[in-house]
Amino acid sequence: MSLLLRRFVNEANNSRFLLQRFFGTVKPNPIAPSGRRTTTEFDNLIYEAGNSGDFESVRRLLNSRVVHACFNTTATFKFLTNTASYASSLEDLRRILPHTDAGYTRKHAYETLIARLCKLGRIDDALILIGDMVNGRFGLASCTFHPIINALTKKNKIEEAWVVVESMRSHSIPVDVTSYNYFLTSHCYDGDVAETSKVLKKMEEEGCSPDTRTYDALVLGACKSGNVEAAMVILRRMEGEGLPVLYATHAHVIGEMMECGYYALAVEFVMAYAGKDKRLDEENMGSLASKLIKRKRFKEAKLVLKEMCVRGLRMGIALRDFYETKCAKIDD
């Protein structure tokens, strides 16, 4: 028994050493009581501390949560809002973040705060934090810039987004496929083929291979341009390269087929993919059936709903009600 006990103690000490090595020195948390913590509990404690202006406790909680494997979330800095206290709260955060535990803890805290600032539309302040990370050498990476590029491209501030990309390059940060995907999605959503081609050319020149979201954007672009055939070609190429297809990618195609009045083709498209992924079948067939009913294409809707029933797929309440009360009245 004593041998097992000594082994347990040694393993516990080794685990603590590894935590310290990757996440910094483990420090006691004076606010949260001892015992197992959850991510939500840490978020709530940080919210209370930030709201009350106790930023020293915010710092300690940011350190403690990583040690407890309760990593930061989109709610971690929820106390920071566009109110009168915004400026002072941000300055307090800029003051305490450099004093969080070095390594992952500090880097992730900065990245989480940058994402929060982008959600609030405070892009300039997010860029100031980037400067803080550069000055402190806190481990900039491509993902640090993603929320900023995403926010700018969503607002169609493309030129400003490219300035951020140049800033990445100036700090020797690689422009990865995710960064390019934000530009592609913006251009494809607008159906801007010329700009989409330019981004693809940049990716090719830099040896950046397309991923699932790249193809999703291209399928979206084809659909926005009203070119279902091109969307299908892109989808087949994606599958040929062995990339997983997002549910949203299928939704783009189904939506455009419905807009073009290709009802039979939409049913054929959905049936062709049936049986490979139950969740995808539920999404595709449920969405298609709803769209068909909305357009009063009841015969096609009945066909899809019967297929869902045969396959034991989950239906929403409205679809289930339609199937049970009205399908029997529809002539085959």
UniProtKB/TrEMBL annotation:
Is Ion transport found in the keyword set?
A: no
Which residue ranges contain the repeat PPR? Answer: 176-210, 211-245
InterPro entries given in the database record:
PPR_rpt (IPR002885), TPR-like_helical_dom_sf (IPR011990)
Key word Aminoacyl-tRNA synthetase present:
no
PROSITE patterns (alphabetical)? PPR (PS51375)
Q: Which UniProt keywords apply?
A: Repeat
NCBIfam families reported for this sequence: PPR
Provide the protein name. Answer: Pentacotripeptide-repeat region of PRORP domain-containing protein
Source organism (scientific name) = Arabis nemorensis
